[in-house]
Amino acid sequence: MSTLEYRDSPHRSPQETLYEYCWCRNVTKEVRSLKSACCDALVRDACVLLRVLPSLPVTFIPTLLARAVEDGRDRAAQLLVSFWPDSSLDLPAVVGGTCPIIHHPKRVVATTAIVRAFVELSLKGDKDDLCTLNVTGFQVGPELLEFVERKMAVFSRKDTWTSPRYLICDFFIGEPHSFDVFTSLLQHRLSKKVLLFEIRNLEVEGVGETRLLQLLEMLDSDALTGLSVAYNSLQNQGLLRISEQLRRFRGLVALDLSSNGVRRGDVRHYDYLSDTIRVMPRLRRLNIKSCRIGGYLNTLLARCSREITHLDLSACGLRQQDLRVIGHFHNLTSLLLSDNNFFNMVAELISVLLVLERLQVMHLSNCELRADGFNVLWESLRVSGSHLRSLDLTWNKLSEDNLAVIVGDLEAGWLPHLVHLLLPVPSNPSPAYFELIKRLEAANPYLKVQPDLV
Hints:
This protein is an alpha/beta fold. The protein folds into 2 domains: 1-207, no CATH class; 337-454, Alpha-Beta Horseshoe (Leucine-rich repeat, LRR (right-handed beta-alpha superhelix)). It has 19 helices and 13 strands. The protein has helices at residues 29-33, 36-44, 46-52, 61-71, 74-82, 91-95, 105-124, 142-155, 176-187, 190-193, 209-218, 235-246, 267-278, 297-302, 320-326, 346-355, 371-384, 400-411, 431-443, and strands spanning 88-90, 132-140, 165-173, 195-204, 226-228, 254-256, 285-287, 310-312, 334-336, 361-363, 390-392, 420-423, 448-451. It has a 13-stranded parallel beta sheet with strand order 1-2-3-4-5-6-7-8-9-10-11-12-13. The longest helix has 20 residues, at 105-124. It starts with 28 loop residues before the first helix and ends with a strand. Mean pLDDT is 86; it is low at 1-34. This is Leucine-rich repeat-containing protein 14. One of its GO terms (cellular component) is cytoplasm.
């Protein structure tokens, strides 16, 4: 719980986003069925597109816009939006698929151009039919924030505008300067009556507790569905204060409290977090990575909705009773348990895996898994992992024999949906190890195999 500028955050790894593991799909079938060569030519040449747009049927515009965004044609995307036949544009619905725009660099380029054009159109106050632009899944980052700030400064002296425009999007705040720009935008008079921001998902990191508390007080608690406050050095006391503020956001679907230096938490942290989570009935994605609430984590998890689909408990110091509670979340599709010591809890881990039959993502990196007990654990993954798409086993003490078992099962057709497999490298690997890696890659052309240290 991960920009517009496709950021490389200094605080987290690139794949660690608010959305975590969403699997990409192709652009909608209609785009591919619309005389593909003609469609490509139109979005590739903006001058030609500008000449033919007035004579094109309006039913072609969504199809052309989807192709322009998919191919990163920024000028064509701007033109097509200016001819949009409706008062609202839901870009994720037009493009299709479930993977957020942020994960596709070409889509990010085109969507950036669309948002810039919409902002200018709104602030100029020119009459236009497009009043609402929804680009959820696309994060407004530092560069676009500064662009909006400059445009508001230019048009702030204007006296009259047409009806307000609404921009529905996500925001990423990654350092104090971006925080200052963002808060000034929220307080600007134009953002209250001309260009209204509806924030669906917000990531705030690297700004500290004081700024974070200030920002939470300014946000609309009804619109926000995803919130990440990771990497803000809250520590124990800060987590207590933030948890109390979060109770306003009852509609949250995704919440990320990870990596804030919480150590040796006690019953107070359990009480505050428990009370916070209890007022969020729609919560489906919870990330409390590195939050160590010794002895109370299992009780906290027991208070969570059984409908949770994503759970990140990496580096939480899990105990046996914690694993037993995890087994009650039968709807889990993503379970991240890396950096926990399961050396004496393999039996409990196996019991959990056997009942979680919907898992698509499983992370067990650096979990003290040993060669002698791995085959039984792998059997449970094999039996219940018919939907598994991503598996991380890196930094565990496995042997080449364990890898041979994995290769044999994948060659036999087990785990048919697996597309991402991360494996440990044994100490002093022999040539046979690398031959096994080659066999793995040959077993499934769609499978991406990544050994650590290779």
